[in-house]
Amino acid sequence: MRFPHGLRALNHGEYRRFYAAQLVATIGSWMQTVAQAWLVLQLTGSPFKLGLIATLQFSPVLLFAVVTGAVADRLPKRRLLVVTQTTLACQGLMLGALAATGLVEYWHVAVLGLLLGFANVFDQPARQSYVMDMVGKDDVASAVALNSAAFNAARIVGPAVAGVVIGRFGVVPAFFVNSAGLLGVIVTLLRLESPGLPTTAARASMLAEIGEGLRYARRTPRLVLALALVLIVSLCVFNFSVYVPLLARTVLGLGAEGFGFLMAALGVGAVTGALSVGMLGSREPGLVQLFASAMVAFAALLGLAATRHVWMAVPLLFVTGYCGIVLMASCNTSMQLRAPDALRGRVMSLYTWVSGGVFPIGAFLVGTISQWWGVSAAFLCNGVLGLAVLAAIMLWWRLRRDRGDPR
Questions:
Q1: What are the two backbone dihedrals, phi and then psi, of residue 395, each rounded to the nearest 5 degrees?
Q2: What pLDDT, in 10s, does the model give residues 320-346?
Q3: Which domains does the chain have, with CATH numbers?
Q4: Within 13 Å, how many C-alpha atoms sit on residue 267's CB side?
Q5: Fewest 10 Å CB contacts: which of 85, 135, 138, 217?
Q6: At what angle do helices 106-135 and 140-169 cross, to 10 degrees?
Q7: 352 CB-near residues (< 8 Å, 6+ apart)
Q8: Which residues contact 103 (CB under 8 A, 6 or more apart)?
Q9: Element containing residue 5 per DSSP (H, E)
């Protein structure tokens, strides 16, 4: 069976099996994300402490993502992924056990969130560069789009299921489902034939290899542009694990099921956006697509700042999810296509560093602003900040073009 153009990465058997396992596991991961946010609000009732959990969870990405990209270029990626997925499964199992026994406290969630962050900082660059090993350059745009679609399809299914489960049975089942899904990924990885070996033997020190990746990115203007856009969108837009529960609970007066519905609206938009990027084929996304998607995402935040009703929140979350994922998937594709094989882990670690590393800062800001002035003020501040920085990036790129600098 041959898959249509937009889904052509699925023609690769190993990627198809890996993709299916990851889809199931990501649904479980989103269930855990919803359950963890709800658990923190149950334990503390504090927007600041909810934001602090997200900060701890993503701090390892900020501190170590560039280093782990060099690790991904040195080690067999399949073996590294088995280790990271095992760690993530144990983390969910421990959190579920603590919640089930009634012993869970806020500091437990914080420590286990930090453990999840350390596992993810090794997992993400290895997983993103392993995709290229499975599908090749011709189909990488399709694979990136499918990965984004899976992530955001899970954003629909996971929170919706979690909302129902939490409303009827509490948060505990969500943690155990996540661990079971990760076990499926581990089994799948062990059965794949591609080891994801390094393309060249390590010839320099780890520090020198990190420097090589940074210099390559700095000398490639399109990579600098992609990283700048990912940075500001990640900082201002992708704080949904803090934004949405606060919007649901403090502005719209919704419970766990309503929270899951809002996350599902966000996810529907994101899946649609990811599939739109997948239709590009092997072409690099255009600049108009990058700038327009970022601009609309920031404008949607301003709309959410004024939202007081579910019927307003749902379409705005759809638009935010759509445009945010179009931007992120487009930048990911551009970086994958521009990275040499020997540097791909290090280049993609910069994507991980920027996309996940600024999240602790953004989550802390959203949590702090929401604590003092409410989540509507947080939407407003981040929407204005995003539009201002986007205007500066566009001006920089135009000045480069006017000087005749190569792209």
A1: -65, -45
A2: 988 988 888 888 877 877 777 667 667
A3: 5-197+204-403 (1.20.1250.20)
A4: 22
A5: 138
A6: 150
A7: 61, 65, 68, 69, 121, 124, 125, 128
A8: none
A9: none
